[in-house]
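Fig. S4 source data, part A: sequence.
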Amino acid sequence: MSSRLKEFLVELRACKTNKEERDFIANEKTLIRESFNKNQAALKPRNLIKLIFMVLQGYEVDFGQVEAISLACRPTLLEKQVGYLGMSVFLHDQTDFLMMATNRLVLDLEHPNAMVRALSLTAISTIADADMCRSASMGVLGLMTGSGARSLPASSIFSSSTHKMDKQSMTEPVEKSLIIRKKAVHAARRILTKCPELYPDYFNAIHSLLREKDHGILLGALSLLEEMANYSQSNHIEWPSYLKDDELICTLLDKLRYLVAYKDPEYDIVGTSDPFLQTTLISVIRRHSVRKGHVVISTATLYKISQTICMTIDALEGSRKPAQAILLEIGKLAMSLTNDVELLKSGLSVLNMLLENSEASPNPRFVALVLLNCSSDKIVHLPEFLNQQIQSTLRILGESSQDTDLCIMAIKVLSKICNEDYLFGTIEAIKAMSNKAELLETSIRSVLSILFRNSSGKEKRTFEEALKTLVLSNPSVAQDLLGQIIKNVLENEQEEAVRRMLFLLESNPGCEDLLLLTLMFFNKCQRFEVQRSLLTLKRILPSVSNIFIKLRLVNLVAKVVALSDKGSSEVQTGKLILSSLKSDSEAEIRLRACQYLTLLNNSSLSSSTINALFNVDLSVP
């Protein structure tokens, strides 16, 4: 006969070598198998626990499935607990034995003891296959809504006096058992994952669960709601009116308002009322307010969201992590509804609160910068907030110089939102970061972007700063030539500056930043050596990999050809460059080159039409 469980553990731990342990396990498995064959019912629970322990130790056990199912069918609670534990270890949704357990699981969903119902729901949540899910669906649905309660006399529950339960707990209705309802929600997720055709059956249940006061049930319902929403959208399933966008969001907003207004000490975490539920509610509201980039709710609902955001922010206390997490979700919600100016302003205020808090974790500040980066095109039209965001981002650069990822994101944001008021202060702050190798490339490109985007009225100083910036990234560029070019530009000797710049390009064909600078400067020049410029661009073209720079180069060449005399060498050289780009690896470059060649070969186009097509802002000799 196999040993008792305590003796088994003592002898197992006494094994000195791996071989000795394997031999002991093999011998014990043989004794357990013999006990199962003799149908020694009294020894089944402890033998099954030993098998479970062997599996947890990493040993393979190829029997015990039938015994686990048979124990789950026994009347006593201990045997059921061991049986369900064994089923969760030995069975899964691809096991052939699972069909033998389906009937028992469905019956136990209506068991008068809440603990047995909990065991059944847990098993469904972990091992149920599609057939079991279909059989158990109605029982799980009843337990979710509280309509599956069945109260029986305590005397009819267990025949064994050893494992009798408290009579009051046995007769307690299901709707009062919060644990059962929480487990039923998790089981419902498994059912809908395996059998998505059952989604319509659960709409009413979700609607009632969203009005629950228990936070655990509400969290489970929100998770289930998201699963249903994702499936319904991909399969075009019509939702009932009470779960449509405006109705649903108003329900969630009411729940959030109640949560903020009436703090329950049981759910308080460092002064914040259940931050887990608050963040989940705000996240679900955001996902159901915007679909495929478009706001799908009414103006009245947007106004209610704005009021709720203000109410939630006012209720937050301190700068602890729970409050930071809620602020972050509020920022995401407000920035996703950017078509509403008031919400956008609220979102920017929240993001600024996150950026200003230097004592908090860097993660919220990083995400706030990501949101600013994504919404930069909207922010630049709100000058009263723009300067505030620039100042906060510059402060992050100064305070977080050791956090490379945070600095890179701050530099990217500044390259998009910096205006003329902070132009050179921002450039100096970014250039100060370029002493770190990992920040060098981002710093250089951001400085160039800021310079060329804000060059109006400051062309000379802008060009000077850009050339100085190139010295940082390209030490091989001769500094004396850069100094002469700056001098030529300042003295309005543009033709001489262009000649010197072409010399730099020929000497440094792999410097894409210098090429970008040259192309942009050519567009500002009134006169330059066309033939030499085109020949230089033709020579360095094979070394250019950046598609953005290639597009600018194609556009510049087309402009030059359009303004040159027909039949001249400049036209021939320019068309050769465009023809070579027709076989480029990038589809967009090929398309642009073909379109330009077609236009340039059209002799019926007037000069005014050409100017309009190419937006020409240069002239050539």
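Fig. S4 source data, part B ends here. The mean pLDDT is 77.
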